[in-house]
Write a structure and sequence with these properties.
Blueprint lengths: L24 E7 L7 E4 L13 E6 L4 E12 L11 E2 L8 H13 L4 H8 L2 H4 L4 E9 L14 H13 L3 E2 H7 L4 H9 L3 E9 L19 H16 L3 E7 L5 H14 L3 E5 L7 H10 L3 E4 L5 H12 L5 E4 L11 E7 L16 H12 L2 E6 L4 H8 L4 E5 L10 E6 L15 H12 L3 E5 L8 E3 L17 E3 L4 E3 L6 E2 L14 E3 L3 H11 L5 E4 L9 H10 L5 E4 L12 E6 L13 H13 L10 E6 L5 H7 L3 H14 L7 E9 L2 H20 L10 E14 L2 E10 L2 H14 L6 E7 L6
Parallel strand pairs: 9-14, 9-15, 10-12, 10-13, 11-12, 13-14, 16-26, 17-24, 17-25, 23-24, 25-26
Antiparallel strand pairs: 1-2, 1-4, 3-4, 3-5, 6-7, 6-8, 18-22, 19-20, 20-21, 27-29, 27-30, 28-29
Helix pairs in contact: 1-2, 1-11, 7-8, 16-17, 17-18, 19-20
Protein name: Replication restart protein PriA
InterPro entries: DEAD/DEAH_box_helicase_dom, Helicase_ATP-bd, Helicase_C-like, P-loop_NTPase, PriA, PriA_3primeBD, PriA_3primeBD_sf, PriA_C
GO molecular function: 3'-5' DNA helicase activity; ATP binding; DNA binding; hydrolase activity; zinc ion binding
Amino acid sequence: MSSELMEPPTQPHYLADRQSTDPPLLAEIVLDRPMNQPYTYIVPEALASAIEVGKRVEVPFGRGDKRETGYVIRVLRDHPIREVKSIERVVDNEALLTESLLKITRWMADYYVCGWGQVLQAVLPAGVRSQAGIKKNVHVESIPESELPNPLPELTKKQRNIVDLLRSECRDYEIKEFARIASCGVPMLQNLIKLGMIHRTLKEAEKVDYDFGEEAVAPKAIVMNPDQEKVWARIRENLTAGGFKAMLLHGVTGSGKTEIYLQAIQHVLDSGKEVIVLVPEISLTPQTIQRFRGRCGNVAVMHSHLTDSERGAHWRKIAGGGVQVVVGARSAVFAPTRQLGMIIIDEEHESSFKQESTPRYHARDVAVMRAKLENVPILLGSATPALESWNNAQRGNYELLSLPNRVMDLPMPKVKIIDLRHEPKSKGKHFAISPTLEEAMRKALTAGGQVMLFLNRRGFSTHIHCPGCGYVANCQHCDLALTFHQQRSTLLCHYCGYEQAPLNECPSCKQPSVRYQGLGTEKLQAEIEEKFPSKVVQRMDSDTMTRPGSHQVVLDAFREGGIHILIGTQMIAKGLDFPNVTLVGVINADASLHLPDFRAAERTFQLLAQVAGRSGRGDKGGSVLIQTYTPEHPSIRLATQHDFIQFASLELKHRLEHSYPPYFRLARIVIRSLKQDSAEKHATQLSLAFKRVLENPQVRQPGSKFRILGPAEAPIFKLNDQYRYHFQIQSDSSQYLHQVLHHALALVKPTSGVEVQIDIDPQSML
């Protein structure tokens, strides 16, 4: 289905009595469709008492009156301007959406150019929509004497005692619970229900009483250093003053940002309000969660490993006011808190806060807007802030707070570059680590330290080719090379999941000369185990961390010293604090540097700075070795100096020269289809539509800058069997960019089989 906003189709209208003088009760409904306006339906009298804003309803839609589920966004009494259809059923007993959630989702629909119903469908967890985890228990209660059967049935002494006991309690009981209290069996109570002597009701309850961490033991409070005290004093002033305030906390790795978060949370809780804390990936920050649960009362943790029942239970408990702190990944920004007092975003620069399916929102930006709409402060923290956030701080839109030093006066780790252009090859059959890095690892391990090795490529060999004829093993569905996973003995596409058996000979020239080349974490692990046979080596990537709790098991073992060398992708580059790590090695610093994406340099700097920050957090100190073929690149050179400010200055200058964010707003449009000619044709038509709109004097904004690149083949042209063309749109005015988008998209409707994806503020250009 296209993400383009569509005009509602023509529909038959009925059930409105135009002759009536009393206006009927109407409800405005939005559906899970890419449409830019709600539909009006009549509320039948039988449903009038049940209808409410925030509930779901079933309605007939379209010429065929297909039953669809929609969300009530407004209820009013008015005469419709045309005949309308009638609501068939109210789905929910209670409203699922608060007023604040309706406001933020309305903004999201406008800003991210999608349907309001699509946003609401994405905001509500599937476990909430399906009421997963809820069971209906039978309850019994007494019947007023005036309503008892006449004449009364004959009862045994035991039955009369049960009826009298229930009346004396003046409350209802779950039937099994009351059977225990009355020392009788459930069948006896069911018989009294049939006789009309007690009343039976059904009440919803959670199937499982999930642990929300209420009984965690609070650790001793940490004494803050002068830098932390200064930052906390300013945050406390803003919290006391109340109202919306955006603050950016720039603190080097190990500077104690988490303690600042905890102080702020406690202050908000003391005022009787609630806090939302966003983290990049909840399962990767167990230490942070333990500290939250130890000091912040009832904490609900929302992450990707929860079942639908668990998500539903968390949502309902938050909505019921049973949770003070909500900690989670990007979707936690929609937590239905009753009295929100503050939002905190840790590692705010992380690209994982961006949703890559409709609605393509960025949780950081949604959080800032939610804080503004609810008039509460928001704190964004990072050692390497996103350049958009840094620019906001430089312009005064955010208040900049700084933690320039590590806690306990620990020094930043010493960073050394290993220039692979001049480094001799390692001995053995693998060559991932240089002799310099190998020697440093041996010294660190001999001294009792631990080692972390970072490589942001999983698998064993990243490409397979034939040197004889040039054949490359590519995915059958994508324009991407297959990766060899030795442990699974398969060639795998990391985008669509296609698999095939490993090759022993070239499919093209039939020669047994196929070479498996490139380096992934699996091959790195094989090399490390070969060179350090007496050490315990563990790998952390999406191939090994598949079971719930697997991250926690590995990190606990590493913390306790049961693992000497930890190998991992970017999941080990953030949020981890291990004082005994004295050496961090970056195997290939250039892996993300040369991608066709204007954020490549920024991401490289952030990854290197973050992974370097895992070293030297204890009394033993630490060092970092970075292997690279481009040591002179500013992203690498300045990361070794821990100099974010200088990097930001250089990169922002480059962004301004090329009209990129944060100085220009950016949108990306991807047209895709299983048929290449269909995708190309629609891309061409859309290009002409943009030209017409920009030539329209009623749309054109004098003084505003606007640039369209494309249509062109996307860097990954074929993905999941679909051919992709894309546009890149830049403007110095967000309003102008959205205006042009809406007008151009309205001129060209995609044909069957063609999908248009709109991405505002894209994080990936591939």
